[in-house]
Amino acid sequence: MNQEQEKEILRRARVSDSLFDLNNVQSFYPGTKIKNGVDTGEPCLVVGVTKKVRSEDLRNEDLIPELIGDNLQTDVVEESELSRFGNCGLSESLGQGVPPYGPCDGHDYNSSGDPFANALGGISIGPNDPLRRWSGTLGFIAKDVTDSKLVGVSNNHVLGDYVDTDYSPLGCYLENGELLDEFKLNEDMSPLVQNMIQTPSVPDSSRNSVILGEVKRAIATKWGSSVLPANTVDAAIVELTEDIHPMTDLAHLSESALKVAVAKIGERVSKSGRTTGVTGVSSSTRIVSTNYTVAIGSGCEDGLKTKFTDCIKFNWNAERSNNWEFFSYAGDSGSAIMMDEATGSSLVGLLFAGTYFQNSTSMPNPPYGTGVACKIQNVFSALNIEAWNGNVICGANSRFVKVNGRCYRNSNTSKPLELISHQNHEKYGTLGECVGDL
Questions:
Q1: Does residue 370 contact residue 315 with C-beta atoms inside 8 Å?
Q2: What is the Cα–Cα distance from 153 to 225, expressed in whole angstroms?
Q3: What integer is the mean pLDDT of 391-415?
Q4: Which residues pair with 77 in a beta bridge?
Q5: CB atoms within 10 A of CB 164
Q6: How far apart are CA 182 and CA 193, in angstroms?
Q7: Which of 144, 147, 213, 240 has fewest C-beta within 10 Å?
Q8: 283 domain residue, yes or no
Q9: Do residues 274 and 126 make contact, with C-beta atoms less than 8 angstroms apart?
Q10: Which of 44, 79, 114 lies at the terminal end of a domain, its last residue?
Q11: Nearest-angstrom CA–CA distance, 22 and 348
C-alpha cells in the first residue's frame, strides 16, 4: 500500500474526532482487514485501542462500528498506550523485565569522557533551565533556509515544549492561572524568553556539560479537551554556538550526509538515540502506516489532549523473537528515523512518541511496542529548513578551513566574511597547511 492508497481509504472513512471519545481508542490509520490472523487485502480503517474489550462488556455508545463512512470496514487492534517521549536497549544488556534507564554509553559523553563539542545526531540534550528538567535527543544537523546557518533539529517538547496560545494552556506551565512566558513563542516562532540547550541533558550532567546553542524556532503544540486540535509536527531548531562543531554524523550509526526519502510501508527503520542508542539495525522494526493519526495526553493531569495527523507509525518487536530490543524509550524523542533502502539508509522522520512502560509489571516479555514519527518533509516545511550535505561556508580571508579534523576548500573566495557559518575554526592559505596539520 502506498501513500495515495492510504489517503483514499481516509477519504472513504470520513473520520471525525468523536472516534476518540470511544472507550480506549487512541489512534486510527489506513490498512487492510485481518481475519483469523490472515491479511485479506481488503481496505479498512484500523482503529488502535489501548485495551481490547469484548463487545458485550462495552456500552453501546462505545462500540466501534463495523462499517464507517463510505461502507469502509474497520479493524480493531490493541496498542500499548503512547506517550510523548540508562542502559542500551538490547535484550542481552537489559535482561528480562527491565526497561531502559539513563543515557546509552557514547551518547552522553565522547570517548575521552568530555561533553560533545561536535554536534551530531543521537546525542543527549536538554534545556539549561530549572523549569525544564528533562532529557531528549539531538536528531540531526540541518540548514536554515532563511539565513543559511546550520541548526540542530529535535522535538518541540524536547527543546522547550512551547504551547500554542490560541488553544488551551498546559496545566504544567501555569502560574496563577496564566501560561508562563517561558513557554510562549513570538510571531516569528522564536521563544519569548531565551532558552539555552546543553549537552548532555541536565540529568546526565554528573560531570561537565557544554552549551549547544539557543532555541531559534519551534512549532508550538495545540492542546484541547472536547475538540482535539490537529498538529502535524513536534519539532524545533536550536542555533549552534560558535564553539560547537556541526557534523552530518548520527552517533554510532552513520557518518555520511543524510539523504532524504519518503517513508514507505513495510520498510525497516533504525535510529540513534540518547536512551536506547542505535536500534533497528539487526531487528525487524518496520513501518506500518504513513498516514497515522494519534491522540496523546498532556501528562499534566489537566485532562488536555492533542491530535497528531499525517505521521509515521512503526512497530518494534512485532515478531517477539528471542533477539528483542527496546527500539525507543523515554529520552529518545527527537531521534532521526532512518529507512533502509537499496542504496543505503535515508532520513524519513523525527521520532516524538512511542510506547512507554512505566514499570516492569506493565511490560510484556519480550517487550513490544509502537513508535511515532513526524514525516521529515513536514518538519522541513514547518521550520523552513533543508537537509545539510556537509558543505562548509568559508570566509573570504581563507582558502581552506578545518572542521572536526577535516579539511574543506573554499570554492568561492568572493564570499564576504559575514557568510561564515562555522566560526572560530582553523583557517589556512594552502591545502598543504590544512592537511598537514591533521
A1: yes
A2: 29
A3: 59
A4: 48
A5: 17
A6: 5
A7: 147
A8: yes
A9: no
A10: 79
A11: 32
Model confidence over 204-229: pLDDT tens digits? 777 899 999 999 999 999 999 888 99
- In this structure, the chain runs to a length of 438
The string of DSSP codes covering 393-407 is PPPTT-SEEEETTEE
Instruction: Cell 483469523: give the residue.
Output: 36
Q: Are residues 184 and 254 in the same domain?
A: yes
> Residue 365 is placed in which grid cell?
516479555
Q: What is the band of 418 on the pLDDT scale with cuts at 50, 70, 90? A: very low
Residue 395 lies in a domain: no
Average pLDDT over residues 153-164: 97
- Whether residue 55 sits in one domain with residue 86: no
- DSSP code at position 192: S
Q: What is the C-alpha to C-alpha distance for residues 103 and 119, in angstroms, rounded to an integer?
A: 17
Indicate if 61 and 112 belong to the same structural domain.
Answer: no
Distances (CA, A) of 266 to 32, 121, 207, 285: 13, 25, 42, 9
Do residues 178 and 270 both lie within one domain? Answer: yes
Q: Give me the domain span that covers residue 414.
A: 400-436
CA 415 to chain centre: 35
Q: How many CA atoms lie within 13 A of 7 on its CB side?
A: 4
Backbone angles phi, psi at 407, to 5 degrees: -100, 130
Q: Residue 7: in which H helix or E strand, if any?
A: helix 3-13
Q: Is the pLDDT of residue 384 over 50?
A: yes
Same domain? For 381 and 406 the reply is no
Question: 386 CB contacts (<8 Å, ≥6 apart)?
Answer: 142, 143, 145, 380
Residue 97 lies in a domain: yes
Amino acid sitting at position 253? L
Contact 136, 199 (CB under 8 A): no
8 A C-beta contact, residue 180 and residue 173: yes
* Grid cell for residue 126: 536538554
Q: Which ranges of 51-185 does DSSP label H, i.e. alpha helix?
A: 91-94, 156-159
What is residue 308's predicted lDDT score, i.e. its pLDDT?
A: 97
- Which grid coordinates are listed for 353? 512518541
Rounded to a whole number of angstroms, the CA Rg of the chain reads 22
Domains contained in the chain, number: 3
Among the candidates 79, 95, 116, a domain finishes at 79
Q: Which helix (H) or strand (E) holds 284?
A: none
Cell numbers representing residue 420 in the block: 561564515
Question: What predicted TM-score, i.e. pTM, was given to this entire model?
Answer: 0.87
